Amino acid sequence: MSSPLTGQFPVYRPRRLRRALPRERRDPPPAARDQVVPLRAVREQAQHRRRPRRGLSRRQQLCSVAQHFRERAGVAREHGQAARPEIGERVAEALGSTIREERKASAVRREKGRHLVVLVGVLLDFRLNFGQPPVFAEAARLIYVDVDDHRKHRQAEVAIYGNVKSALAELDSALEGAPIRSPWVDGLRETETAARARDQAMMQSDSAPVHPARLIAEVDRFADPDAIVVGDGGDFISFAGRLIERRRPGLWIDPGPFGCLGSGPGYAMAAKLARPDRQVLLLSGDGAFGFSAMEFDTMVRHRIPVVCVVGNNGIWALEKHPMQSLLGASVAADLGSRTRYDRVVEALGGYGEMVERPAEIRPALDRAFKSGLPACINVICDPTAEYPRSSVLM
Ligand SMILES: Cc1ncc(C[n+]2csc(CCOP(=O)(O)OP(=O)(O)O)c2C)c(N)n1
Ligand SMILES: [Mg+2]
Q1: Torsional class of 151: left (φ above 0), alpha (ψ -120 to 50), beta (otherwise)
Q2: Is the pTM of this model over 0.85?
Q3: Is 314 touching ligand 1 by the criterion CB < 6 Å?
Q4: pLDDT for 110-125, tens place per residue?
Q5: 146 and 219, same domain (yes or no)
Q6: Is the domain of 147 the same as that of 214?
Q7: Phi, psi (deg, nearest 5) at residue 32
């Protein structure tokens, strides 16, 4: 936890950060400039915007405005994670009464329809294929609502940079009286339900070694509704991001737009220290586990009982599988098979178990939490179970 670098780097408050940025990063690219709605204008125009209830934190206020906006836009479900392009599409298309377009056949969906994406506080990073096909259709129109224009990578139809809460409140007012588009929203829901049904087969797999999707499904079923789940890894976390649906913001933490492996134990410790009464589950690939495993020593010494589930497939799957499919071979992407990471944690004074079959996962999780110690459930996973990816990582 203690970093020798602390104190060597200046801490940037937003205004200082802005000054520290190269000029081209401070302002929207010239082409987009006249489409940008300045924050002040949004704020000034928001005369009759809905006032959030008193006594809520800024984050809660933002969530309540966003929730209201989503409801008004006809999207009933709440989504906490960023890396899900279809969510942005749904919100956007529900809003699309003013900007319309017959979508050209796209690699994502072939049926005709409108295709408008509203990105609220979302970076177009590698998880969204930088805003390009096949994740976003070529013809898609994009609307940005964010604090700045970082990592947008694609020309926006409209960009609103500034205070997200004010912008959402204003959009919310603008939706007043908009026609209800339930047949269209129902159609989208059907599409999503069908996509989720396709994932069921891997989530119910009984195979040993365990399918990573089955492991994720077991952890998801086990976790309390307010558990904080931290992801750290390659495809193991791609499965988690796809299959785990957290009900509120702040219940999912992952390595973010840089995908920096090894961040998980630190995040998990911080989460457990901040919310000692909640379950904190760290999902870690075996590759990721190798980056920061000694943090379990910190957890033991400081009595921070994080429960870690290692998806141990003996490889860097996110590197190996794409190499194999693109190049026909892979290099430097193999780890030891069946390495006893559980014993590493035991040796440091924590609790450890190795699991080889799906039915053993839940009881092992139960014992790990009951131990009251930092714990490692080391689950032997199938190295041939490939993540069904839609973005290109090379
Ligand atoms: C610090 C850092 N180094 C390297 C990478 C590149 N990288 C991305 S995923 C990955 C392998 C992850 O393997 P594992 O955690 O076992 O997950 P799996 O893909 O096998 O599920 C690597 C090396 C990275 N994201 N971060
Ligand atoms: Mg792995």
Answers
A1: left
A2: no
A3: no
A4: 334 457 788 888 888 8
A5: no
A6: no
A7: -90, -10
